[in-house]
Description:
alpha+beta; 6-stranded antiparallel beta sheet; globular; 5-stranded mixed beta sheet; about 30% helix
Amino acid sequence: MKNLAIPRALAVIGALFCVSSFAGAKPTAVRKPVVVIGAFQNESTSLDSSFMKSFRTRIEQEISATGKFEISDRTAMRELEQEMALAEMGITDGGPSDGMVRSIGYKVSGSVLMFHLSSGYSADMQVVLKITDIEKQVVSDAKGGIQEISVHYIPRSQGENVPDSILLNGLLSECAEKIAIRVVEYAYPPKIIAVGDNDVTVNIRDTQTEANALFDVYSPGEELFDPDTGESLGSNEELIGRIRIKTRMPKFSKAIPVAGTRLDKLEKGMILRAVNPSQLQAERDSKRLKTSKPRP
């Protein structure tokens, strides 16, 4: 019996050591998706190249500030790829390894359709935003891959003779912030994180939405794959209902079910997709057509 006591004691000590080691271990960090800011075409005759360059820089800053992405330096990436190509052709002795060229997760690009400056008072801008999932090489309209963003900027300290520089800076910041929010929603669709007795909690910050905004609720469903190529076709989402934002807070919001949606049908983890004005108008038109049909 004495001979068994020592191994048992060592086993207990070893188990305690393992438990303490795991308790002190840090969770493995998840690699953030890399975003590259592509070209934004200037379709407005009121803008010059310096404005477009500033606009791209603001977009980079706002997307980086979300803390959910890393921004790719296009110039550095291009140089690395050129060095690798030269090495593969035998022109140089060596080049950077494949691991040095991080794969891009998403490409953000688009067009500036309209810009208008009411000197001393306000500024307006209209942008078409395109988000490309590089891995899948697709721009999914269902997820909001192509969106239109309109900004009407009036300084809070509204008054006469506001300097044009303040108007331009405010306009760029507000538009870039909206773009960053759309990119976050595309890569990380908002979800229900808790279901209460009278409402649901969603991971949508106050800066990401407006009061009374509507969101359709979807059950994720099974992921579908192309039988020939094995390519992911996305999830077979099922529309569950609709919710309206009731209370906005810095890190989450509260929402209530609307349009006949039952609270007991909503579950934690369900995906939310914003209902845009054009979708609402299409729904109203459809209802109007149904009600206006002559009776037989």
